[in-house]
Amino acid sequence: MDFPSAPASGAYGINDHGQIVGAYGPDLGPDIGDAGFALSKGSFKSIRFPGATRTQCAGINNSGDIVGIYEDSSGNVHAYKFVKGIYTNIDFPGSTYSQGGSINDSGEIVGTYYDNQNNHFGFTLIGNTYTSFHVPDATYTFALGVNNSGDIAGFYVDTASIYHGFTLSNGTFTTVDYPGAPWSGLWDIDDAGVVVGAYGDGEIPYTFEHGFASRDGEFLNIDVPFVGAAATWVTHINKSGQIVGVYIDSAQRFYGFTARVSQ
């Protein structure tokens, strides 16, 4: 599932209608793509924030509202939303770097920002109100997914520089790590509480090598079966169990994929 003729693609969000968003381009990597895309009923549409040098789509809700990140001509990275054909910057106030991660059906947005000392925090945006949050005792917090109850998923880095997945529900943080894996991260949480993400041994170049889904303490390993795949990340899940994500080959080229898991 790659953008037509693009040398690299990644799928980062999906809604309950099966509409998918992501990014593509020769410079596609873990952080940001050359251009974003939306895929609906087999048709691709390119998404570019006006005046941006690079754009990536990260999440889409059931109304088709999109959030993501873009890079300006000075190399600064910003969060944005794309609603009813209008692009809007949604940087956390005072941040030096912001990225939009996900948007739910009520329009609540979650994302990540850096302050002027390069500390990393999660944030929510509800209406015009921003709220910062941080996993206790973590050095970095990254927020990537939100469901319609406002439950949040992401990952954090502890004082030993180890990655862990987390959920935030009703003010309570819970660590979610793949059993036996030294490094884990979550990208999304659905309305039933199913979380998806990736885990690995933390070695360069991939950090996370295997995708997974989890619910109520049970874990399902997810690796794409394609020849040459060296790493799999599961980035979003919808209510019917359709997942999207990225797999990376041994040349570190990114490809999008979609699959379905039973719930």
Characterise this structure:
This protein has a 4-stranded antiparallel beta sheet with strand order 1-2-3-4, with no helix packed on it. A 4-stranded antiparallel beta sheet has the order 5-6-7-8, with no helix packed on it. A hairpin with a 5-residue loop joins strand 5 and strand 6 (66-71). The protein has one domain: 6 Propeller (Neuraminidase), CATH 2.120.10. The model has no long low-confidence stretch (mean pLDDT 94). With 263 residues, the chain is mainly beta. It has no helices and 23 strands. The two termini are 23 Å apart.
List the helices and strands and how they pair.
Elements: E1 9-14, E2 20-24, E3 35-40, E4 43-47, E5 54-60, E6 66-71, E7 77-83, E8 86-89, E9 97-103, E10 109-114, E11 120-126, E12 129-133, E13 140-146, E14 152-157, E15 163-169, E16 172-176, E17 183-189, E18 195-200, E19 210-215, E20 218-222, E21 229-237, E22 242-249, E23 254-260
Antiparallel strand pairs: 1-2, 2-3, 3-4, 5-6, 6-7, 7-8, 9-10, 10-11, 11-12, 13-14, 14-15, 15-16, 17-18, 18-19, 19-20, 21-22, 22-23
Highlighted features:
263 residues; mainly beta; Neuraminidase; 4-stranded antiparallel beta sheet; 0% helix; globular
**Secondary structural class:** mainly beta
Backbone shape: globular
Extended strand count:
23
CATH topology label: Neuraminidase
CATH class: Mainly Beta
How many separate structural domains?
1
- Estimate what percentage of residues fall within beta strands: over 45%
What is the rounded distance between the termini?
A: 23 Å
**SSE order, as H and E?**
EEEEEEEEEEEEEEEEEEEEEEE
Relative helix content:
under 10%
Strand order of the largest sheet: 1-2-3-4
**Regions with pLDDT < 50 over 5+ consecutive residues?**
none
- Count the DSSP helices: 0
**Rg value:** 17 Å
CATH architecture: 6 Propeller
Q: Name the CATH homologous superfamily.
A: TolB, C-terminal domain
Overall average residue pLDDT:
94
Largest sheet: 4 strands, antiparallel
